Each structure stands twice: as C-alpha cells, then as structure tokens.
Amino acid sequence: MSNVMRLSSEALLILVSLAAGPKHGYAIQQDIHAVSGRRLGPGTLYGAIARLEGAGLIEAMMERGARRPYRLTPAGTTHLRTELASLKILTQAGTRRLAAR
Amino acid sequence: MKRHFLLRLYPREWRERYGEELAAQLEAQRPLRVAVIADLVRGAFDAHLHPLRRDSGALRRSHMSERGAIAARATVVWTPLAAVAIAAMMVLIDFWYGHTSWWYSSSGGPVVGGLTVPWSHPQSLMGDQSVSPWVRFLPYQELYDLALHLAMLAGALAGALIFAAVARMALRGDGGGDAAGEGGFEPPTG
User: Fold this and answer.
1) In chain B, positions 59-78, which contact chain A (CB-CB < 8 Å)?
2) Nearest to B46 among A47, A63, A64 (CB)
3) Is B187's pLDDT higher than 80?
4) Amino acid B146: pLDDT
5) Model's pTM, two decimal places?
6) 3-state DSSP call for residue A24?
7) A30: nearest CA partner in chain B
8) How far is B153 from chain A (nearest CA, A)?
9) What is the DSSP annotation of chain B?
10) CA-based nearest residue in chain B for residue A69
C-alpha cells in the first residue's frame, strides 16, 4: 500500500465521496457531481474504482451485485488525510502568493 | 445490445469483477450519449493496459514492472482492431477516390510490383467482339474494384485474427490472464 500512486483527481473525488460513508457506483457518481460539479463517465469512474481497490484504498462490501457498495479502508482514510493536508498547504501557498501580487 | 457490446471491449476478468455494476450504470444512461461511449472505450483501453490480476486470492492491478505482459495483452486486443480499422479506412479512401487509380495502369490492368497484368481485367479476357449485350450493362470494372477491395479487407481481417490467436496462445502460459475465470472474487483484506 505504501507505494500507492499519486492519486488522480478522479480517485481523490471518489475517496472524498466515500469519506461520508459507503456508496455504490451510481451514488458515488451523483455525490461527486453534487460536490464538485464534475460528472464522471462510467468508464472513468470504474477505472478509478479499480485502481483504488487494487491499491487497497477502498474495498467492496459485497462480493457481487449490480449495486455493490464500496467503503474506505483504513489505509484509504490515512491516504485521503495526507492528500487533503497536502492540498491545503498548496492552497494556502497559492492564496498567499496571489494576495502579494 | 449496444451496451453489452461496449462491455465486451473490457478484459474478461475486468468484466467478471465490475461488469454487473457497469451494466447497471449503463442501463441508467438513456439515451446512451456519444460522450459516454467514448468514455467507455477509453476505460476499456485503460483496463487492457492495467489488467486486474489475481494475487493472493484477490484481484489486484498489475504493476508497471510487468510492462511486457501488459504490452502483450494490449497488443492482442488492440492490434487486430487497429489493423482492421486502418485497412478499412484505406480501402474506403482508395475506393472512393478514383476507384483504385493507383492500382491500374493506363492500359487497364492492375499494377502488381510495377508490372501490368492485363489478363486480370475481366473485359480483356473476352475482347470487344465477344462481349454479349447484357455484359455491357454490368459495371465490370466497379465490381472488380469492389471485389479487390473486399478481398484486401478480408485479408487484413484474417491476418489480424490469426495474429491475435497466435498472440493469445503465446500469452496463455503467463498465468496472468485467464486465471480470473477459475473462481469468485475475494475482497482485499484492508
């Protein structure tokens, strides 16, 4: 898990969505649209889900099913915290620099 | 039907893992927009480049250290499609512009390796005197062109399929691909 790739924006959005609780694919898609305004296509969504699941950051709560819910793993929660902290630092730095112009 | 065809673009182990969910999502997408189709094709390409692998009972994404196997898998699936698409495009363009003008010499026979082959032209076989009235109304040259192009396309398709079959047989021994069909999925243990 430690050598997880740098998260794509889609993967980060999925982690943020699942931070509110387990969801199935369609609910994740709707939640991301509500939170960010982005509507992920099904190919993009499941590509990112497969990556996250393969990296051990999320896990399916059922073995099979058309509406299989996913949830964050402890590793996923830690990773999301780290990513958001990093983004926060970046946002603050960018805001400071813009204010100094 | 079209939806199921789109799912067929994905690797089998990927479909076994996510196909049911993806199919349910596609059922909710009515009408199926071009952007969604493009997204699925892109997703399928990505799934072939990063196949799921069975690792300690769970399916995991492969690592880039296995680039050879990944490239081989992508080659098996996409090369035949690309070959047929390119061949079809060339045939259509060629047929559309001047009916194989670069195949035919001015004397009316096809050019093969720089040589004119007059006997291969249907009308040259019979000569003007022997042409029966009904033959004059048949667009022989166009039919011949069409047959030639269809043969080229069939040749490209056959070659691509043979290539894919050979590559698939060669890959079957690597243990990375068809193992997913042997049993169910076990979720990763966080």
Assistant:
1) 59-61
2) A47
3) no
4) 76
5) 0.55
6) coil
7) B25
8) 31
9) -HHHHHHTTS-HHHHHHHHHHHHHHHHHSSS--HHHHHHHHHHHHHHHHS-EEEETTEEEEPPGGGHHHHHHHHHHHHHHHHHHHHHHHHHHHHHHTTTTTTTB-TTSSBEETTEE-GGGSHHHHHHHHH--HHHHTS-HHHHHHHHHHHHHHHHHHHHHHHHHHHHHHHHGGGSSSGGGGGS-------
10) B21
Under DSSP, is residue A47 helix (H, G, I), strand (E, B) or coil?
A: helix
Q: How many CB atoms lie within 10 A of CB B65?
A: 8
**A61 SS3 class:** coil
B184: exposed, middle or buried (Cβ count in 10 Å: 0-12, 13-18, 19+): exposed
pLDDT tens for each residue of B32-71: 788 888 898 888 888 888 777 554 333 444 444 456 666 6
How far separated are the first and last CA of chain B, in Å rounded? 37
* B89, B82 Cβ separation under 8 angstroms: no
Question: Helix or strand or coil: residue A72?
Answer: strand
Angle at A85 between CA A81 and CA A90, to 5 degrees: 150
A45 has a chain B CB within 8 A of its CB: yes
- Nearest chain B CA: its distance from A90 CA (Å): 29
| A41 vs B39, B186, B190: nearest CB | B39
pLDDT at residue B175 greater than cutoff 50: no
**B17 to chain A, minimum CA–CA distance in Å?**
8
B185:A56 CB<8 A: no
Whether B19 has its CB under 8 Å from any CB of chain A: the answer is no
CB contact under 8 A, A51 and B50: yes
Q: What is the pLDDT of residues B120-152, one digit of tens each?
A: 444 544 555 555 555 555 566 777 777 877 887
For position B148, what pLDDT does the model report?
Answer: 79
